[in-house]
Amino acid sequence: MSDEQKQLPVPVEKASTPVPRLSSPAPIHTHGLDAERAAKIVKQSGSSRAAALLGIAIVTLFVIVYTFYDQGLPGVTGSARLDAAKEEQYLETVTRGYNLFQANCARCHGAQGQGGIGPVLNDQGKLLSHLTPAYLKNVLTVGGRYVCGNANSLMGVWSDTNGGPLNYREIEELIAWIRSTNTDTITVTDPATGARVQVTGWRDAAYVPAADATPVPDCWSDAFAASPTPAPTGGPSVAPGKTYSIVAQGVQYTTMSLTVTAGVPFAIAFDNQDLGIPHNVAIHTGSATGAEVFRGAIFPGIAQQTYTIPALAKGTYAFVCTVHPNMVGTLTAK
Ligand code: HEC
Ligand SMILES: [Cu+2]
Questions:
Q1: Which of 4, 119, 122, 188 is most buried per CB count within 10 Å?
Q2: pLDDT value, residue 43
Q3: Which ligand does the CA of 328 lie closest to?
Q4: For 257-288, how does the pLDDT look when each residue is reduced to its tens digit (9 = 90+)?
């Protein structure tokens, strides 16, 4: 055998059976995939598909439920989470405003905003067109002189941007309370009794002024100036029997009671000692809420005027300042 012959590869015998075309050859390694194992794999992938479907179903259901929870049920107002949170936040603001009002403003404007030393605030016409949020903000920032231009206004500046004691948030809260409506119910501590009570806002959201209602004047005291002073009744001027004196100082009458003779006209010398503040003397039967039988002219201090008053029947009367409902005294005719 030559060397040449030695290096030739060992001749390979050709496979006698041809491998069919377009098909893979029979696998060499089976990985032990017998029929049982294959069935198991098919089953497993089936159950993981079911698990995925279940997951998708849960997420979908959650999204739907969450949407209704968040956005509210269609047609059910206030069921939306965000709206409910907003409403709660708003009522919280109103409550703070109520407390600020009782602490800082009620002594002049009355606990119910009914007026006193300061003008009435709870009037519907006023709340509708005059006491707008922008106006309230201006008054509280500039102070009472913004209202009628009275430099001696009893009401000072409230906003701390102008040297007052309240910050912008407290101003907002006060405005929220003054503007709140009778559909806003809050639970507060009544400053007078200390009891927890429910109160509603002053403003009637549905209020529509009468067609012939006089517009609210920009300056509250113009409303009094414009009101006609009833002319003294009782024929040709009868010389008044006696002159009594009433003094107003510090938005108070210093004379608290007066006794006059019934059946004879008399005079009241009224001395208004409050610089720039309008006062008068009006006489009402019974109490301050009784019928008005006489109204003296309203004029700012410091000044004096003498009113001539027709004879009064025996009884009890109240004398009040038309501008300041907190100024009340008792008048007895006997
Ligand atoms: C010392 C008494 C006093 C206090 C306290 C007071 N005010 Fe006044 N307020 C007045 C007087 C007086 C006026 C009228 C302004 C003028 O003509 O001088 C007035 C005017 C107003 C007006 C304008 C009313 C209108 O008809 O245009 C508003 C609004 C007001 N006050 C809100 C408040 C608020 C809110 C507080 C509490 C933070 C407050 N006031 C505290 C006395 C007071
Ligand atoms: Cu007065």
A1: 119
A2: 86
A3: 2
A4: 999 999 999 999 999 998 888 899 999 999 98
330-332-333 Cα angle (round to 5): 150
Centroid of chain to Cα 315: 44
Cβ atoms of 240 and 308 within 8 Å: the answer is: yes
The H or E element containing residue 133 is helix 133-142
**Cβ of 323 less than 6 Å from ligand 1:** no
Q: Is the pTM of this model over 0.85?
A: no
Of the candidates 306, 181, 199, 189, the one whose C-alpha atom is nearest the C-alpha of residue 244 is 306
Judge if the beta carbon of residue 176 lies within 6 A of ligand 1.
no
Cross-strand partners of 55: none
Query: For the chain, which domains are there?
Result: 81-203 (1.10.760.10), 234-333 (2.60.40.420)
What would the pLDDT profile of 89-140 be if each residue is shown by its tens digit? 999 999 999 999 999 999 999 999 998 889 999 999 999 999 999 999 999 9
Question: 144: Cβ below 6 Å to ligand 1?
Answer: yes
- The answer to whether the CB of 104 is under 6 A from ligand 1 is yes
What is the tens place of the pLDDT at every residue in 177-228?
A: 999 999 999 999 988 889 999 999 999 999 999 888 888 888 888 777 644 4
Ligand 2 centroid–CA 98 distance in Å is: 26
pLDDT at residue 213 in the model: 84
Query: Quick check: CB of 249 below 6 Å from ligand 1?
Result: no
pLDDT at site 272? 94
| Ligand whose nearest atom lies closest to the CA of 300 | 2
d(CA 92, CA 109): 22
Determine if ligand 1 sits within 6 Å of the CB of residue 158.
yes
Instruction: Return the best residue to mutate from 94, 98, 109, 132 for the ligand 1 pocket (most ligand atoms within 8 A of CB).
Output: 109
